[in-house]
Amino acid sequence: MATAKDPLISAVEAVHAALKDLEPTDVRRVLASVGALLQVPLATQTDRPAIIRERVSESGDVPARPLARPLSIVELLQEKEPSTSAERITLFAYYREKYEGVSRFSRGDLQPYFAKAHLRPPANYDRDFVAAVRKGWLHEDENESYITTKGIEAVEAGFPADRAVSRTAKSATVKKKSKSKSTGAKKRLSAAKSRRKKSMSPSRRR
């Protein structure tokens, strides 16, 4: 028994047959006129109904739109550039929720993502996980742990606040070292002057 042809496909084929020999400008005019007569907006190439893309693409009459590819964990790391293990662990929680659809996790669930991202795991994973919790990026509750709103914002912004703190601390350390060196140089200069004065004293000359 023959299967009835899908009326949607039949309509597409009929329109295609009627317009395929016309110039592009004329095709647009005809479609605009049809849309006005039917009192419906015409779909564009990008917002064609999925059923048309799936069924018509098999006949070759209308090319199917390429499927969207999900973002990989490596691509996300390259985009956000986390610089510490705590930042990477938070990013893994973000990836797990947004791209894998799993919002809850235990502490150990995020550790395998280092291997998935082709990264060497941290020497002290538990310490770095706790550091992310202390920053307010993750909330730990056994198997019901999750990334917080603050953590999501930190990942999406590329951890700018954390880096600003890091830069400030580094600058303070450099200044402290510079001041220490300056103080040491002054002390050495003062000691040298003192030695010269002693060598020039009258008692030394006799």
Highlighted features:
206 residues, mainly alpha, Topoisomerase I, domain 2, two-stranded antiparallel sheet, 10 helices
Placed side by side, the strands forming the largest sheet appear as: 1-2
> Unreliable stretches, pLDDT < 50, 5 or more residues?
44-52
CATH superfamily of the domain at 73-160: Topoisomerase I, domain 2
User: Span between N and C termini?
Assistant: 132 Å
Largest sheet, if any? 2 strands, antiparallel
CATH topology of the domain at 73-160: Topoisomerase I, domain 2
CATH class of the domain at 73-160: Mainly Alpha
Shape: elongated
Please provide a brief summary of the model:
This protein has 206 residues and is mostly helical. It has helices spanning 7-19, 24-38, 50-59, 73-80, 85-98, 113-116, 125-134, 149-157, 160-200, 202-205; strands at residues 138-139, 146-147. Among the domains are: 7-59, no CATH class; 73-160, Topoisomerase I, domain 2 (Orthogonal Bundle).
What does this entry look like structurally?
This protein has 206 residues and is mainly alpha-helical. Among the domains are: 7-59, no CATH class; 73-160, Topoisomerase I, domain 2, CATH 1.10.460.10. It contains ten helices and two strands, in the order H-H-H-H-H-H-H-E-E-H-H-H. A two-stranded antiparallel ribbon has the order 1-2. The termini are far apart.
